[in-house]
Amino acid sequence: MKDSSKRLFGLLASLALLAGSFFVFVSFIRPEYARINQLRGDLASKEETYENQSKIIDEVKSLLEQYESISGLREAVSRAIPNEEDYATAINQIGSLARVSGLFLESIEPHLVTPKGTTSLSTQTSSLPVLRTLQMNLKLVGPYDAFKTFLERIETNIRVMDTASITILPSASANNYAYTVVVKAYYQSL
Q1: Are the C-beta atoms of residues 164 and 135 closer than 8 Å to each other?
Q2: How far apart are CA 94 and CA 103, in angstroms?
Q3: For the residues 38-53, what does the mean pLDDT come to?
Q4: Whole-angstrom distance, CA of residue 86 vs CA of residue 185
Q5: pLDDT tens per residue across span 89-124
Q6: What is the pLDDT of residues 79-97, one digit of tens each?
Q7: Residues 6+ apart with CB under 8 A from 190
Q8: Is the four-CA dihedral 30, 33, 39, 42 of positive or negative sign?
Q9: Residue 129 pLDDT > 80, yes or no?
């Protein structure tokens, strides 16, 4: 074989290899490369969806925690200002406060106080809670220090109460006094 034939044959073989490489690239590599790009896009989309879902889950958890704290607040408010008169609890609290303070509770007279300027029609049409008052007239006997402690405990009691009036009279015992106290406890009414 002549050199020119060898060169032509080498050139044709190179051309055939180039065409074969091009054929392999177009037939096998290019479709796989497109499939890999498609899978990368799907992966990126799924990662983004996962991140968004994680953020949403975290926000829902945060809202649930806030709701739980609000429900705790609601419970505390309903203990401080209940939704009804709840005579029994108010009387029990006053009796316990007097006993713990060292006073003797002679009598307690609870009664509801009707706010001035309200009618039964105006209270029935309103959908907002209205603050009402349960007034309790107390007669107590005991030392003055115990009475001061009793008043402090009224101020810090879980149910909102305040003292409307106080009358102090000497008692038969030297260290004791007789106290007449008017205490107001509050409740909500629709």
Answers
A1: yes
A2: 11
A3: 91
A4: 10
A5: 899 999 999 999 999 999 999 988 876 655 544 445
A6: 788 888 888 889 999 999 9
A7: 83, 126, 127, 128, 129, 130
A8: negative
A9: no
Residues 56 and 107 in one domain: no
Give the strands of the sheet with 161-170, arranged side by side. Answer: 104-113, 130-142, 177-189, 161-170
pLDDT score, position 127: 64
Q: Distance (Å, rounded) from C-alpha 186 to C-alpha 85?
A: 8
Closest C-alpha among 155, 159, 174, 140 to residue 77: 159
Q: Are residue 109 and residue 167 in the same domain, yes or no?
A: yes
CB-CB contact of 120 with 127 (8 Å) = no
Neighbour tally for 101: CB within 10 Å: 20
**116 and 173 housed in the same domain:** yes
Q: What is the mean pLDDT of the chain?
A: 85
Structural domain boundaries enclosing 29: 1-80
Tell me the mean pLDDT in the region 38-47.
90
What is the model's pLDDT at position 69? 72
Q: Based on the domain organization, do 150 and 167 belong to the same domain?
A: yes
**Sign, Cα dihedral of 162, 113, 187, 93:** positive
How many domains does the chain divide into?
A: 2
**Domain match, 179 and 91 both:** yes
User: 24, 50, 80 — which closes off a domain?
Assistant: 80
